[in-house]
Amino acid sequence: MTSDDMKKRAESAKEKLAQYGDDINLDNYEYTSSEPSEIESIDDVSSADQSLVKEVGFDPTQEKVSASFMQFDTESILADVLLSQEGLEVLPMSQALKQYDWLQNYLWKAVPVDVDKYTARSELETYNGYFIRAKAGAKIGMPVQSCLIMKKNQSVQNVHNIIIAEEGSELHIINGCATPSEVEQSLHLGVSEFYVKKNAQLSFTMVHRWSEKTDVRPRSAAIVEENGTYISSYALLSPLKSIQTFPKVRLVGPGAKSDLYSIVYGTKESKYDIGGLLSLEALRTNGKVVSRSIATDSSEIIARGDLVGLSGQTKARLECDGLLISDSAVIRAVPMLLARAEGAELSHEATVGKVGAEQLSYLMSRGLTEDEATSLIIRGFVKLKVPGLPDALQNSIDSAIRMSLEGGL
Amino acid sequence: MCGNLLETRDLRVEVNGVPILSGVDLEFEPGLVYAVLGPNASGKSTLAKTIMGLPEYKITGGDILFNNQSILNKTITERAQLGIAYAFQTPPSISGVKLDDFICRICPDYLCKVDSEHLMGESCACKDELYDDFERLGIRNLAKRDLNDGFSGGETKRSELFQVLSMRPKIMFLDEPDSGLDYDSLKIVGCELKALREKGDTTLVIISHHRYVLEFLEVDKVYILYQGKLVYTGDMSDIPALEEKGYEKFLAEVTG
Fold it and tell me: pLDDT, tens digit, for every residue of A120-148?
């Protein structure tokens, strides 16, 4: 598709409401039109910003990473691949699109441009983001770290990312998004498209910390080919105004596998509508969608999970557990299963409840106070163990959760 | 003779409006071993859970004294901190809390340092002794498992015993510590209890309806509950007759 066709399709979807989530008036925000400026080195990033990015798992010392990418609003960008990482490429999207004509073929392929007004608007305004590629056969053991920071008031951060794990490669990415708390109203539009080729492994870990005035509308999707593996884990631990996201993973090659994990710690008046869809389109494809939600204060959490079985000899499971610890909070778990082929084995388990009285009594009988027991139960509940994730990334998730709970409990 | 560590006076308890204990007087002295026996539904577990302070057990009359002080207005935590422990029959599972971390938490003796950077808030590094003790109880395999999650019946008994032992309580109530155990596990549990008896600083109350575990350690006093009342007080020498005749016949003869 030419870029003119793309713009036309985007124009046609400009007013198309999203399937879920509160509608946002996109004309209330300012969009950037200038080319991004380049940050030479992490040393040029202010120490305040450095400590902000640390909260979302980004290590400014770059000790245990293979590459770093940082983007402030839609304006300034740092992309730094450490030496000796053969077969790894990290570029700002604007530059990658100039450099590689073929990249056009991946743009809006996993996420259609006309899904809703947010994808449409993202295409129609100036965007940036990252292009990360592990070349065929490259095993990148150390994670690539990226973070997207929003600092401007009343503005939109418009991000479009493309991640490609070529045949037989291994790639791990940790993505942190953060907004300093003093930012007034802002909107994050993030489009991410993941392509996992034959026998490749890709893990994508997100730790996000937005401000209470931020609306977030990520639109992401993955296409996984034969025997490829895609693992996504998402920890959303801070209050925000609203988020609605429903990433879709298509397992298109035989033996492809994907596990989607999410943990949401709902606080204040935040509204979360978070889901995940697995589409099993080839033989022996399989996966899991696991979500944990904790609703405190007056937060509202909708946890959706959708399994679609389009081929036989497939298997997928949905686990959706919610813990409600406030009378003014709400959790709604929405598990969906759709089978269109004989031999698609789909199952789900959904629970929503409060901290169990029996669990409390039990722990108190071992000498813990009621508060200590409650906190232990909650901490246990939010532990998100992601099988197959490198230790460094599991640790980032653990410490982000710990930091949030220390603030909240 | 020294005073009682714990006693119940005319204790009356109901669960969901149904009376279970209808006036029970029991005395537990420091360092002795007691067996509370009785047929199913005689109120044995209710007695222990009420003393622990579990909320479903509503006290409608009487009192529970610990060192001659009423503990009726004390929370479960306060009772645990006084030195009362109860090993659950079917404890709830707690996800994300590992058994070794938990034992470390309830027993500071096992703890050698506070949580390091990479561990979750409640985690800690535990001393090797902890794992030796796991080994001795034959449940090393449970150390890294979530608390009570998928434990078998026999594993639950030993994990519960391990936890209450770790608390170094003054009095512990073991609710059927021998049910569901194979002979080897029974022996392990029996030996632990025997060792505890020999140390002599914990009052042991074993709730049971059979005598398996009682073969491993000497019991100082036997209480038999029947239909929510204490109907007989005896000692070890009653057990063979009790076993031979069964509760109905035994009680008919001794109370007859």
Answer: 999 999 889 999 999 999 999 899 999 99
Residue A145 phi/psi, 5° resolution?
-105, 140
Measure CA A152 to chain center: 22
Question: How far B16 CA lies from chain A's nearest CA (Å)?
Answer: 15
In this complex, is the C-beta atom of A383 within 8 Å of any C-beta atom belonging to chain B? yes
Structure tokens at A62: 């770059």
Asked if A376 and B52 come within 8 Å (Cβ–Cβ), the reply is no
Please tell me which residue of chain A has the smallest CA distance to B83. A367
What are B125-131's contacts with CB under 8 Å, separation 24+? B126/B100, B126/B101, B130/B100, B130/B103, B130/B104, B131/B100
Which residues in chain A are contacts of B48 at CB distance < 8 A? Answer: none
Q: Can you give the three-state secondary structure of A186-216, one letter per residue?
A: EEEEEEEEEEECCCCEEEEEEEEECCCCEEE
Handedness of CA A247, A277, A280, A255 (dihedral sign): positive
B119 has pLDDT over 50: no
CA angle A87, A89, A91 (to 5 degrees): 170
Give the pair of three-digit tokens for residue B207: 């709730």
Q: Which residue of B55, B77, B92 is in closest CB contact with A367?
A: B77
Tell me which residue of A314, A274, A301, A279 sits closest to A290, measured CA to CA: A274
Residues of A in contact with B92 (CB under 8 A): 356, 358-359, 362
A366 and B88: CB-CB below 8 Å?
no
Question: Measured between CB atoms, which of A356, A364, A383 is closest to B92?
Answer: A356
**Measured distance CA(A366)–CA(A284) in Å, rounded:** 47
- Considering only CA atoms, which of A160, A408, A68 is closest in space to residue A265? A408
Inter-chain CB proximity B95 and A362 less than 8 Å: no
**All domains in chain B, ordered by first residue:** 6-93+169-255 (3.40.50.300)
Instruction: Report yes or no for ipTM above 0.90.
Output: yes
pLDDT in tens, A176-220: 888 887 777 889 999 999 999 999 999 999 988 888 999 999 999
Size of interface A-B (CB pairs under 8 A): 75
Q: Which residues on chain B are in Cβ contact (under 8 Å) with A406?
A: 121
